[in-house]
Please model this.
Amino acid sequence: KKPELAIRNQDGTVYKDNNGDSWVNPYNKKVWEYLIEVAKKAAETGFDEIQFDYIRFSTGAGMEQADFGEEAKDKTKEEIITEFTQYAYENLKPLGVFVSADVYGTIINSKIDAARVGQNYVEMARYLDYICPMIYPSHFGEGNYGVKYPDLEPQEIIRKSLTASKEKLEAIPEGEHKAIVRPW
Model:
């Protein structure tokens, strides 16, 4: 309904992922304002937690050529998603709600996946009450965490991912805000 808020292709058309869906542009501050406006209304009506789902970039074909606008020239995908997370937390926390987000479980230890989807596990955890890594064995490649076939050993891949999560979040010094891990 509002193509001016969408991710664009370099020719100016609206980007569509492999399913034909368009995505809002995370670099566009009007998108941020809209999302926070909706979240504030939810808080005002009594919801005690706002969880952001798909707080990331599309991984669909053609994303490498997408045009995100001028601000994208100075900030990485991880930086802009972290900035939005901070903005959301600072605007919603005073309302007395918990703020959470789900993230790809693979970003815990994969810099490639983190950069692709724009999710920095440690930095996002600084601005959330709960961080929810989606540890789906099917998302992990053969050999991740030393597990030959992650789909065949879900308990092992989940255990190793959560151990890695704990180690990663130790980068946040004692006494500083740190999200509680609530895995999916």
Notes: The chain has a mean pLDDT of 96.
